[in-house]
Amino acid sequence: MRNFFPLLIASLALGTVSTLAAQEAARPQAPKTKIEAFDAQQGTVVIRGFSKMGELKGVYGGVVSVESMEFTHATTGRKEFGIAIDVEETSGLERESRSFIDYDEIDPLVKGIDYISKIDASATRLANFQADYRTKGDLRVSTFSSSRGTMCSIESGQIGSVSLFLNLADLARFRGLIISAKTKLDSIKGN
Q: Taking the model in full, what pTM does it have?
């Protein structure tokens, strides 16, 4: 009987934590980027323009794609620009997540990718390494040591995030898609 009460208390605590986590996941998240906030407006017409720059397939399946985005408030003509990065898992569970990157966050993202793509085992005296760059819109780009050499992951979302793994050469292609998206936005922002 003495062993029953600790087990009962532990299972009640676990049930409470699980319930709280489920409630937190179900609660709508406040917009983290300017384009998310712009897109979430209610009671007005928002015009969305977008151009897909391309996509890459992951080493273990899945796809990451990059789009240029322009949001326009129909009444005021106010605009917001940025990119959307979609990550899809295709092995086992088919899940996807989208991260928005504001225009003013694109250059820092590119610089972050440049930096982490150069990191190797000499960055630490320990056996393995991982270097991350995160955006406001819950995108994380990482490089890390693995048995296959230096690998890369792209992760979108916070709770129940979706990940894709790339080799280092594909990280350079992903960077190129981001540069293409910014170049497209630069060409329309001048008009």
A: 0.81
